[in-house]
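Hey, can you fold this one?
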Amino acid sequence: MMVAVFALLSLALVLSWFGRRSIAMLCIFLCLAVTVKEFLWEIHSSTYGYRMPWIQTRYMDTPPVAQQPIVYYSMAQVRGGRA
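Sure. Predicted structure:
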């Protein structure tokens, strides 16, 4: 499928170079359609449909918080004053 995307974009470039801009735009829109189709084909699973389970997008009631602060700066250090 990536070959089709590359071929359509190359064809659009060549057509645009030779002045056939309307056909080149058609090739670009076809390339966009093929790209969307390939993306949907890549993420589709027969188990869970069109979801990407490796990306967690649900809200959490209580997000995890570190037990201790990792870095501590006093305000005197931040402002450049003496501690």
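The chain is about 55% helix and 0% strand. Let me know if you want another pass with a different chain boundary.
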